[in-house]
Amino acid sequence: MKLILFEMLLIASISCTFPPKMPKGKNIEVAIELDSTISSHEQWVYIHHYVGNDHIIEDSAFIKKGQKKIVLYAYTPQENSFSILFSKKGPIDMYLILAPNSHVETSISENDGWRASKIIKGSPSTNEYVSNCNIQSSLYSKKRDLCAQLSMPKLSNEKSESITKQIKRMDMQIDSIEMNTIIKSFSPRNVEGSLRYFKEKVSRDSLISLYNLATRRFPDDKSIKRILHPVKVPPETEESKRIDEHISHIIQTRIKDEAKFKQENKNVKHREITEISLLSDKGEKVAISKLKGRYILIDFWASWCIPCLEELPYIRQAKKAFGDQLTVCMISMDKNHNVWIKTISSNKLDGFMNLSVMDEKGNMDEKVEGLNIKTIPYNFLLDESHKVIATNLHKKDLLEKLDQLIKQ
Fold first, then answer.
1. What is the pLDDT of residue 106?
2. Among residues of the chain, what percentage have pLDDT more than 70?
3. How far from each other are the two terminal CA atoms of the chain, in whole angstroms?
4. Predicted model pTM
5. What is the DSSP string of 334-378?
6. Secondary structure of 220-243 in the HEC alphabet?
7. Radius of gyration in angstroms for the set of CA atoms belonging to the chain, rounded to a whole number
């Protein structure tokens, strides 16, 4: 009998893997595998979030050069959202939704981008959020394209009504995803997010109906209850302010380092845009002076720049509307050429001339620095003799200016 019992215990020990013991006061473990592009940089990694008004760093770890794995720990009494920040290379806001007693595994590479929105082992709530975001991202992309079409000058009433109807259908599909989340999601944080989405869109009575659906499913969730019944929270502590300043400083430093915009310098001569020659996505050196077209749009952008991405549908619409009359040259500020190439494809920029201001070592072209561009998106509109006739035209203003020039 003892022998049988011993064998049963042995089998159980082989077939069951128990989670590792966590540090005292922690109930979440996040294990991250690092690829060589990340582990080649010594840096700090933080897991942080907000509790009420207070910004809290739950844990941090220092990555030594060549280190392939880190483990971060956190604590939460209920499902909560967290962000992971790499101080030098890697995501600046990897969003995770984690519940008590979570053991999460993921991997990070430089190509994951600054947000690193991806499926995570051990976090079904994060995975649901990522899946919904991917679907909605596609819908929002189509909606932005339609809005760009709607911004074209001299659009017929019939065409305008048709586009408006399509935009409404996109909005209905997005609403449907959020509604389905409230009805079916197993994640109170995702449900809370959908409620906040509808809070800005529907009447008070409709919001109450949605709120009642959510509270029946998650009766003890305090964050959901606060949507209709906000409670007074203590003012932010001095420690929270210090943490907020520290995290914000890291993020701003990362952004400035990525952009490498030239600071104002009276000794720098403002160069002509046509003096510049840059490497294309095809690996060829291209001179701006050699570009041909009745009008030439030179647009500076980057994959990490949200306003830049919002401009792209209008640039695509301009090219579609004006065809051979307009040559488009997109100049990327991305240091990572792999991310740049990927973004060209995902944003349908293949039909344009695509150049990069950065060499393979991440150094910016000196003549581009001489342009003294402070922010992006930024563009130059040239005529066929390469004279600059306008700068910094965006969205509807760009379409109207081109229509005025080309159809005059």
1. 95
2. 91
3. 98
4. 0.84
5. -S-HHHHHHHHHHTT-TTSEEEESB-TTSPBPHHHHTT---SSSE
6. CCHHHHCCCCCCCCCCCCHHHHHH
7. 26
